[in-house]
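Lecture 7 notes: from sequence to structure.

We start with a single chain of 323 residues. Read the sequence below before looking at the structure.
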Amino acid sequence: MKRHDFVTIADLSKERIMYLLEMAQEFEKHPNRELLKGRVVATLFFEPSTRTRLSFETAANRLGARVIGFTDAKASSVSKGETLKDTLLMVSNYADVIVMRHFIEGAAQYACEVAPVPIINAGDGAHQHPSQTMLDLYSIYKTQGTLENLNIYLVGDLKYGRTVHSLIMAMRHFNPTFHFVAPKELAMPVEYKLYCKENGIKFQEHTAFNEKVIADADIIYMTRVQKERFSDLMEYERVKNVYILKNDMLSHVKENMRILHPLPRVNEIAYDVDENTHAYYIQQAQNGLYAREALFCYVLGIGLDDIQKDTTVINPYPNHTEV
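Now the structure, written as tokens:
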């Protein structure tokens, strides 16, 4: 395999998506390997992150790579006025691959045009979050046994939610029916509804969120109302608690329905839902490790055959003796 950038989910074919999910399955079987031994991964986070950054760094470490980077642009030369181009060119001198999160939409696309090493988009503004989409797809595939013909309910902040925007694009290959559940202030943007129509994706819009609305769901994908995207805090206060998923709303859902959330959660999922068998968001975050291990290999030209033939599976507890 040749090296790739991973900037947008829109360019991936159905075959490529399934290939990446098969790679993730291999890493779930054995996450500790040395496929990236001797490589250096740079994580450049111009915007705060917990799960995404830590799972990328864990994935790199479990594959034997070393990690450099920053978690706050104020701690880098950006605070001195260095341009994004110069930062990328400088870091490319030191790293084999760059994972970047940036607050400006399109920054990842610009990065792959500038940097001589592969770029992985870890989120660019309200645009896309393609690595999150891969772990979402893997979570859906694991829990439903398929990606085909599913009823997927996207709930909450559909205006600024880059995770739902990316998921729509990825699912175009699998004949989904989307249900967009949002107040009018946070409704799915027109361009994504047009995208659905142009790609034959069925969708319905709802403003109500109750037991009856969600009864036919295979997946309920909750999202946080993102305070950081609002210029008007009064508007944020009006919509932040519009939709809260509560345990008593789940009494008549499908047996195999699963609840996803890209996290962090604020209060859009009540804490008593955590003990419900339909809750899957913690396992979903764990799946991020396997999906991101697959992405590192993909962008560096390491294929599924290489992973399957790999014999450097590492025991993380070499001194452990079973009793």
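The beta strands are 40-45, 66-70, 97-102, 119-124, 151-155, 177-181, 202-206, 219-222, 258-260. Keep this in mind for problem set 3.
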